[in-house]
Amino acid sequence: MNTSHRTISNVSVDCVIFGFDFEQLNVILVEREYLDPLTGDIVIKDFTLAGYHIFEDEDLDNAAYRILKDRTGLENIYLEQFGTFGKIDRVAKEKDQLWLKLIDQGFADRVLTVGYFALIDSTKVKLFSHGSKIQWFPMEEARKMELAFDHQEILQKALETLRKNVRTEPIAFELLPQRFTLTQLQKLYEVITGNSIDKRNFRKKKLQMPFIVPLKEKEDGVSHRPARLFHFSREIFDNTRNERFGNLF
Length: 249
Fold this sequence. Notes:
Blueprint lengths: L6 E14 L4 E11 L6 E7 L1 E6 L4 H13 L5 E8 L8 H10 L8 E8 L14 E5 H4 L8 H15 L16 H12 L5 H9 L4 E7 L9 E5 L1 H7 L9
Parallel strand pairs: 1-6
Antiparallel strand pairs: 1-2, 1-4, 2-3, 2-7, 5-6, 8-9
């Protein structure tokens, strides 16, 4: 993490970075580890969301984009602010206080953090560790983990917001490659919402939406019968969004 700028000691940004591997919803977590410099014994080892304190010369959105680029190498990522977290005891757990003392970077005992969630096509991502392990975790596994600080609460709120917004805004397409099948799109909606969807009704509804554009191409390199590929058109969506399509799924 670049620390050439001066940080604000009591304001941070935490990013919940979602990805989709065509089977499940995943989230990026960063390992937090501190080893005793004399014995090499593990003092602290757990996981956090991707986050950092903001710099004095940047606003919140720019701080979030910086963190995303620093961890994924990607720019122009879909990013949405979904909440502010400022409970008095959010960094008060013994392990978290010990961590702040050990890293000794001058962070405040009480920190206000702003939560963002990002949606990325995980096939394009190369994760950058910068000295700490970073990896994808299945969302269902991550939700059961004991994360640092109040990051489990932040993660749950991000998922709740994603599930709500995906019904009315075409943000789910940010998790897919530019060309996708309707089966992949249905699976994506199912893993986000946690609900099964009737295939026939789903296909019928999606084929009536002009912004889901059928292509002349089909899948390649698959063992089953190749399916037709589709493309989401932002331009058509913006031009037709006032028409009555109902919820997007």
